[in-house]
Amino acid sequence: MSYRQSHDRSITEPSAFWAEQAGRVAWYRAPQDTLQALPDGSHRWFADGRLNTCYLALDRQIELGRGNQTALIYDSPVTSTQQRFSYLELRDEVARLAGALRALGVEKGDGVIIYMPMVPQAAMAMLACARLGAVHSVVFGGFAPHELALRIDDARPKLVLTASCGLEFERVIEYKPLVDKALELASHQPAHVLVLQRPQAMAELKAGRDLDWRETLVHAQPADPVEVASGDPLYIMYTSGTTGKPKGIVRDNGGHAVALSYALPTIFGLQPGDVWWGVSDVGWVVGHSLIVYGPLMNGCTTVFYEGKPVRTPDAGSYWRVIEEHKVNSLFCAPTAIRAIRKEDPQGELLKRYDLSSLRHLFLAGEKLDSTTQHWLEELTDKPVHDHWWQTETGWPVTAPCTGLGDHDLRGGSTNRAVPGYHVQVVDDEGRLLGPNEQGSIVIALPLPPGCAQTLWNDHARYLQAYLKTYPGYYHTGDGGYVDEEGFVYIMGRTDDVINVSGHRLSTGEMEELLALHEAVAECAVIAVQDDLKGHVPLGLVVLKDGAQATEANLQRELVALVRERIGALACFQRAVVLKRLPKTRSGKILRAVLRKIADGESYAPPSTIDDPAILGEIAERLGQAGLAKAG
Ligand code: AMP
Which residues belong to any copy of the AMP-binding enzyme C-terminal domain (predicted)? Predict the structure, then answer.
């Protein structure tokens, strides 16, 4: 079936479409009841199906003859280590770890928090929980104790799994003291903390509570996969909401297995035996769908990278990994490519490597500006695909379906809705808008399998945040439009859309323009309050290394550029040069905080911020420029 036929069928006959796709999964009991609509608007997929996700990712692949194929390649420039695990080896490690967890009291339905760096044991921990039907929640290793404590109190884990340290450039980050502190702050206490000791910083173990990972495994008996119901939770992934309390996105087992068994071949064009590299961290949704579960459930080899795009040791590290492991396709965030481009603008390092194994590059997580996209396309001579999804959906909403021969791509667009997703645009009153009309992007219910249908311990919040705003639709929180051919254009979170004298404008669009300037490495456009116009845009730019432009000249040129391309109505009159932009650890620019600083409002550094010190610097800089009202 072509992309168009598949998409049409998935929307007009969702039950029949997904009942067919469910055939991709080796269930213990195949579901007969494909789709249930609940009165509150949420849905249940494959309610009577029974399966085990770890079995699908490992044992099933071995049954299909892939036992000796490499399942996971650990590539760690920060420790100068590489290690390969075949499907057999990985299954045995995971089965033993699952046995050890069971001996410590973990059973089906129990919670386990995983707070670990990008070491293969982190993937093993996730898979071991899945094997027992336990519910893991991976907390990104960089989160501070307060954030970890919030998650511990919400997930109420029986165990916490951690490592003594993580490594960043030349810095050793001790994890264990952070876990200790989090447990002091949390009211819930796990029975044990299992600690993987790394030689770079050995942790002190508290007698009785803390256990050494390797010693615990010595006597462990391997555990077999435990059958679970389709709707049983596989994991919780906490993500930021509009309040300080993170949202616990719940992923079910059955819908997730079907969605990823469909998505990897259909969107990413992956086949068993292909080498896939999801460049992210197990602490994010990509680490779940595209580093661990997706590639393994589809018989691929997954690259597990403990390093950065630059400085481990240089801006050529991505290209080195691609050549060395013959990577066929990869996922990364645009911010990583911008970091590489900043340090290696001419691609001198890239040219040293053989990228002939590579078929596609997939970018998502934030707006992909055309400058970055073209730079990457020209240097690699490979297709660079933008695609769009969220922690909540767990897999792409819009993307090119390369596996269906869908090569009809549109620059600037995150491409068309993937089969299963009926993407539409509504205005503030919930009225459907026509082609090219900008509004809130929504997805008509039902959401396809794999998407979150509830929040951990808080179904009411799920309904409130996602289903109540526009009845009959899932509210994505993103603004944008869809053109007459179905290509979707994401212009940013709805709160990044600004209103200047009643004209609706996209800060994303302006950022795209500023990024065209040869001196600009990266930028953010935020709305600042204006007594007359409501809001006006402000450009915050970081210069490329060695760029000569003065701030006054640059501002003049950028103002002219926006005026020329968007028009005087944009009221873009100010651009300020900053040394750095504040970002989350996953690379998203923290525009909301920038807005608050510029408007002189009080702000608290968000928990996800990479480097909180930067905010003071920026406030001072904007104060000097006469912008941050409170200085
Ligand atoms: P997260 O749940 O942290 O992955 O964030 C999801 C949000 O990131 C989306 O709602 C979008 O605002 C943004 N996002 C993800 N992918 C893209 C993309 N390709 N283009 C623009 N924004 C994106």
Answer: 509-588
Q: Is 401 helix (H, G, I), strand (E, B) or coil?
A: coil
Give the pLDDT band (50/70/90) at residue 195: very high
- Residue 179: what are its φ and ψ, rounded to 5°? -65, -45
Token pair of 476, please?
A: 């994505």
| Pick from 138, 185, 144, 181: nearest CA to 162 | 138
Question: What phi and psi values does residue 210 have, to the nearest 5 degrees?
Answer: -90, 140
> Ligand 1 within 6 A of 414 CB?
yes
Instruction: Tell the residue nearest (CA) to atom 5 of ligand 1.
Output: 390
Number of helices and strands in the chain (H, E): 20, 30
Q: What is the distance between the alpha carbons of residues 258 and 338, in angstroms, rounded to a whole number?
A: 34
- Is the CB–ligand 1 distance for residue 154 below 6 Å? no
List pLDDT tens digits, range 554-609.
Answer: 999 999 998 887 777 788 999 999 999 999 888 888 888 898 898 888 888 888 88
Cis before 77 (ω within 30): no
Q: For a pLDDT cut of 70, what percent of the chain falls above it? A: 96
pLDDT digits (tens, 9 = 90+) for 383-406: 999 999 999 999 999 999 999 988
58 contacts 92 by C-beta, under 8 angstroms: no
Token pair 């409130």: residue: 464
Is the CB of residue 365 below 6 angstroms from any atom belonging to ligand 1? Answer: yes
Domain ranges of the chain: 501-624
Beta strands 439-444 and 497-500 are unpaired
367 CA → ligand 1 middle, Å: 7
Our answer on whether the CB atom of 511 is closer than 6 Å to any ligand 1 atom is no
Q: How far is the CA of 35 from the centre of ligand 1 (A)?
A: 27
Whose C-alpha lies nearest to ligand 1, atom 1? 390
CB-ligand 1 contact for 493 (6 Å cutoff) = yes
The CATH classification number of 501-624 equals 3.30.300.30
**Gap from CA of 588 to ligand 1 centroid (Å):** 9
213 Cβ closer than 6 Å to some ligand 1 atom = no
pLDDT tens digits, 114-131: 999 999 999 999 999 999
Candidate from 247-256, 331-340, 497-506 with smallest mean pLDDT: 497-506
